[in-house]
Amino acid sequence: MSLQSPSSISLFEEVVQSTRSIISEEEQRFFHQIESPTILLEELESLCSSDQKDQRRPLSCYTKFARFSNGFAPYFDIIALFVQIKPEWLICFWGSIKLVFQLGSCHVAFLEKIADMFESISSILPQYQQHYDTYKRRPPEKNKDRLVHLMSFIYADIVQFCQNVSCMFLRSSKGYPIESPAQTIWKPFNLRFFQLHQRIVKHQRWFDKEMRLQDQAILTHHYADFVEYLRAMEHMNEKQKTQELAKQEKVAAQQVDRIKTWISSSFRPTVYERVVRQRHPRAGTWFLSTPEYRNWKDPKFSVGGINDLNTFQGNWPRRMLSVQAKPGFGKTFLSGVIIDDLCSEYDRPVGPEEIPPTTAFFHFNSMDPLCGKTTLDALHAIAAQLVHAHRDQRITMDAIALLLGNRPSDQHASYDDTVAVLCLLLRQYPTFIVIDGIDECSDAQLLLTTISDIIRGVDCRVVLLSRPDTDYLQEYEDREQSMPYVFSLNKAHNLEDIGLFLGANLNNMATEGLFGSQIIQQSALEELAHRANGLFLWASFFIKYLNSPNLTPYERHAALLQSHLLEGLDALYNEILDMLSRRHEQERAIAADTFKWLSSAITPLNTAALYVALSIVPGQPISDSQYIPEFPNCISVITCGLVEPSQNGILNFSHLSVKGHLESRECRNPGFSLCDASAVHSHLAARCLSYLAHDIPKKPLEELEPFESTNRPSGATISSGVSLRTLQSSSSADSGYNSQASHEDEMPSVGNPSRNILEASFPLLRYASLSWPVHLSRSLSLPRLNYDTKTPAQHFSTAQQLPQSATTIEETQQSYGEWIPVLSQFLIDRFAVTTWVEASWRYHLPPNLSRLVPLVEASKKTISPQSIEGRELRWVILGLKQLVEALNELRKEHNVHLRANPSLIWKRNIQSATDAMFWPVWNSAPSDGTNMPEEMQYTWTNSH
């Protein structure tokens, strides 16, 4: 749209031609007969009424569009006084506005932003109606061409604005129209709208002056000034272009970074990288040739026209492929094959009007604490990948910047925001999406509903990999299409892959001499592949089992010949556990403890904390010899591959089925079984208490400050209204801590370096301090299991009498024997108790044992009062009651002070009303007894 047009008419014509070149013929058909704002508003109102879900938001946008249309309508009346208006000028203008509204109605969040922009424009338009009434009675006879020429620029600006917005919602390789060399520089959409706003303001000022001024010289001056301003926006000298380029490149980079921060995804393709690294070169390629996959992948993507919306609604199930197979089939490895194949489509040659498809993916993995587990995690990850892939596309950045607006930099995209971004990006670009592990999503129904809603309005292809028992929504099943989207895999599909995997590994083992002089027959390999029953996981664990150094060459060969005895995952897991039980006592203990910590930890332990936890021997401090060498990589060898470290060293079960087997009744090895959850939590509670009683210095965790310091602001102070997240248990109410501090509640480590030093020195302190009451309360609340009879004891609480337990008195005493002595040692040591209280306050969770005491009291009925455990338990109950009274007094009298400075627990000012000498007083430099041992200062202080 050149500013050098010889006449106003040629500029109107150029605008019409530009619109036709940008908007396809399909979209131009929607312009037909829209020659006035009255017809436009009728069309927009009809579009609003067609929205069956929520008419309120589109109607609000309609009101703002109507305000603009009514304000701009007299513009054409003024133009008609001087030149004959062609119908295509009106159709181009009003039709462009209708196209924006119709395309935006599928993305209401974006439409609301656009409606705000139109409302903003309407507020600065000249009073066309007022001036038209004046001109209609006495039209000026001079300067008519100049007036129409300058008025035509606002027409061009508005139509181009509509073109730019329409391009956001259309899948096209044409992009924005290029008006000048300066526009090759990407400018964020909000910046270009600001410039449009400035142009309209200048137009409004010029137009008002034109209506008032009669002096020819003044008119000519303002005319020249306005034209010069418009020309300056189009033509810049080389120096200005260089400066503008540098400026806009900086702005563009900042805008992209801001968008990525707003999307806020912690997505890392660790699962994909692992399966690519571990899979056999030819594994899974058979899937790429199946008719189900080819019928889903091969059809061409639509061009994204407006007429496609109805088609999308009708055939959306055909754009989905649900790949289902039982656990252990190898679906995650298969997803890697699919992702690689789809990514190769991006490099395939395409026609001039085609856009190469982009591929985004996400893996749910409930065993990995760093992997996302919610629908929002998946949406954020997919959106972040697409934003990164299209970060150089002006249309994409404009669209997201429009939705982002002027939000604070620390605000992240909500669920609705993320869905809106995805819908728009999938509308703009052909995209493949691969999601693995649907059954491991914590809110799978929301995920399926979201995918259904998104795919109904865009032409994207989605692959979902899950177990056969995934509960799909009814709307997924009620479809009339003859082409099913569910692809059920069975053991025949990957039989050849399993055979290749087993053959390659067994040949390597034979070359290394692990079978001695025994020869592996081809028939044994074929039978072994059939024994896998389509489970790659079984084949993988069978190879790990044969590689165990505990097996002799004869035993390995016997396992090959008698593979029918190990058929099925449960049988193979039991055989591996039996083999582990024959190892050295320390290795057995490490394996059993690893299983317990990974399965039942209240919150996942990081590598450093688990390293310490596995070294604990209850009742004694950790010595250097107890630490595990070559940790964490040695755990894979100790557990025969049942537990594996990730790329970042975090340990977890190799597969969800391993944890499921250990917690099931199918696990026949009592030394490793996790079936008795009560005993597991008792075991973990004892280790947490032992760590607090023997491995944490019995002194203030940080340097003491004066008591008065709590009256002034502190970097570690939090408001009294700090939020605490109630820790829910599916099996029982936790009777220890009433709540667990969330990560959001923690104070930032910036400005508090001592927190980092503390956690580096004592990695398990936070977990042990906050979790031992939870473990103990769960142990006392959960039903006990007699392993021999597999009969659970009756669940009990303090509100009812204990029924006859299925476990014997001896078994109960043996289970209680783990935590009673350690808790007794802990309660006797007031310094250890005080350190624990300080740590709990430092982690923003004041200790509260009120609900734990009744559970411990109830356990008296299951232990003989004449036994050592029975007598010690009664002393523990007395000690707990005294501690509860002291803790209640702390919260009541010193809550504010301890929140601000937890180390004040060691000062003389903190005393319990029920026991004035309960809390020891720590004097770093007493006037007498400076050289006194720390453990004697309590006695010395009390005596003075």
From TrEMBL:
What is the protein name for this chain?
NACHT domain-containing protein
Here the segments flagged for biased composition (Polar residues) are 729-741
**Ranges where the DUF7708 domain occurs:** 65-217
The keyword Repeat is annotated on this UniProt entry? yes
Concerning SUPFAM superfamilies, the annotation shows: P-loop containing nucleoside triphosphate hydrolases
Which InterPro entries would you find in this protein's record? DUF7708, NPHP3-like_N, P-loop_NTPase
Gene3D superfamilies associated with the record: P-loop containing nucleotide triphosphate hydrolases
Please provide an example of a Pfam family that matches this protein in its UniProt record.
DUF7708
The species this protein belongs to is Glonium stellatum
UniProt keywords (A-Z) are: Repeat
Q: Which domain of life is it from?
A: Eukaryota
Which residue numbers delimit the Nephrocystin 3-like N-terminal domain? 284-467
Spans annotated as Disordered: 729-752
